[in-house]
Write a structure and sequence with these properties.
Elements: H1 5-17, H2 21-24, E1 37-42, H3 46-60, E2 68-75, E3 85-90, H4 97-111, E4 118-123, H5 127-130, H6 140-153, H7 157-165, H8 174-178, E5 184-190, H9 213-222, H10 229-236, E6 253-259, H11 261-274, E7 278-281, H12 290-306, E8 311-315, H13 331-342, E9 349-355, E10 371-374, H14 376-385, H15 389-394, H16 398-405, E11 408-409, E12 420-426
Parallel strand pairs: 1-2, 1-4, 2-3, 4-5, 5-6, 7-8
Antiparallel strand pairs: 8-12, 9-10, 9-12, 10-11
Helix pairs in contact: 1-11, 7-9, 12-13, 13-16
Length: 427
């Protein structure tokens, strides 16, 4: 039987390449201003975006080095060498002290922007955890606890960010308010959110926020989050309302998406078609519980197999896991694990599920897996080792399962983030 793993990996790599800062950022950068370019970046691709901005302004445009300053806050292990823009490696998905200091320095540098300066804000997914600036009355530890509770709740990322915005001095438009004296605030973003909502990418630090404190309180109640009394008081305080449309902070602010999940999914769909597969594109905005989505996709694959079709089923979006066990994993690994249990008698079906940022759940290390692959070899190892996928699902322990079968997807930091890429090949 033909090994489909090289093709599966090529499809994943095509999705990542379509959103890499080194190739997509420069055409969107503005001309040099009279004063300085103040570059403030956050997220898993922040350092790569900062390095690309440096190449454009310093090398292509010949900007004097002293006129380019900035801070790029990224996930641990996602830093790259830079010349003028300081890189801060910080915690993700749970914030840490480095992110706290990076956010404080970012707000201070934004406040220094003058009427001749361009405030250039570069965002990728992960910025919500990287830029941590608790509102008054909330300790860093209390903010960390809220993040942990949200991550375990099963809430979709959009709802998580509603709560985060209302407990922050940088999210929900507040960075634009800090830099309101700049000649222009230009935000260039790589979307990691379903439907590409600007207010959701890195929790919208430079755009108006349509959500409210009341929305945040409702999410806390809906998921029965165990939060500190100080956090409850903060969510009741009108002073913590986010910036709304019409705020003076946005008078000279511009926002542009430079990469979307759909572009990356389209790149993978094109490659699958060129490889001879009929393609089923389920869209770039899928949400839902990982194991439930896997069951839906398994049914599609089995139906195509029964009809004798050679099909590639592709999808993007961001799935969630409601944590009930104490194992290790993430949504992509859990999706693949659920598929393994449902497709174990079908050696002619293979699949990959991976996060385009290179990390799926995990402990916040650069060596965390991005997801997993399954095929006939997986099914054979399951049988030989008597591995029962359902038992691992019950404990949310997909990483241990795929360590045993040798099927973890381990690309390392990709320096971008356009959500997940999932592929099922039916031969």
């Amino acid at each position: 039987m033909t090994d489909r793993r090289p093709l599966l990996r090529a499809l994943y790599d095509a999705a990542v390449a379509a959103a890499h800062p080194s190739t997509i950022l420069a055409p969107h950068l503005r001309p040099a201003p009279k004063g300085r370019v103040i570059c403030l970046a956050a997220g898993k691709g922040a350092a790569a975006m900062a390095a690309a901005a440096e190449r454009h302004y310093l090398d292509t445009l010949g900007l004097a080095p002293e006129r380019l300053v900035g801070i790029a806050t990224t996930r641990h292990g996602y830093g790259v060498p830079t010349r003028r823009i300081r890189v801060v490696e910080a915690g993700h998905p749970v914030p840490d002290e480095a992110g706290l200091k990076g956010a404080a320095d970012t707000l201070a540098l934004a406040a220094e922007a003058g009427p001749d300066d361009l405030l250039l804000v570069l965002l990728t997914g992960g910025g919500s955890a990287n830029w941590i600036a608790p509102v008054n009355g909330i300790s860093f530890g209390q903010k960390q606890a809220v993040n942990k509770a949200l991550l375990r709740s099963g809430a979709p990322i959009g709802e998580m960010n509603v709560v985060r915005k209302h407990l922050s001095r940088i999210k929900g438009g507040r960075l634009a308010r800090a830099g309101k004296n700049a000649a222009e605030i230009v935000t260039l973003a790589i979307s990691d959110v379903p439907h590409d909502d600007p207010s959701a990418i890195a929790s919208g630090p430079t755009v108006p926020d349509p959500t409210t404190l009341n929305d945040a309180r409702a999410i806390v109640a809906r998921y029965k989050l165990d939060i500190d009394d100080a956090v409850r008081r903060a969510l009741d305080d009108p002073a913590n309302e986010s910036c709304k449309p019409g705020d003076a902070a946005f008078a000279r602010a511009h926002f542009e998406l430079i990469a979307r999940p759909k572009q990356s999914l389209d790149a993978a769909v094109k490659l699958a078609h060129e490889a001879g597969y009929e393609t089923i594109d389920l869209g770039a905005d899928l949400e839902g519980e990982a194991r439930d989505v896997a069951a839906d996709h398994a049914r599609l694959a089995l139906q195509a197999r029964a009809q004798g079709k050679r099909v590639a089923i592709l999808s993007g979006g961001e799935l969630t896991v409601t944590v009930r066990g104490n194992g290790r994993g993430g949504p992509n690994q859990e999706y693949a694990l659920a598929l393994a249990g449902l497709l174990k008698d079908t050696p002619d079906i293979s699949a990959l599920a991976g996060d385009t940022d290179g990390a799926d759940g995990g402990a916040g290390n650069p060596t965390d897996p991005a997801g997993a692959l399954i095929d006939a070899a997986t099914f054979a190892k399951m049988a030989a080792q008597r591995l029962e996928p359902q038992a691992y699902l019950d404990n949310n322990d997909a990483t241990t399962f795929f360590e045993a079968t040798g099927d973890l997807l381990l690309p390392g930091p990709t320096l971008t983030n356009v959500n997940d890429i999932r592929v099922i090949l039916v031969d």
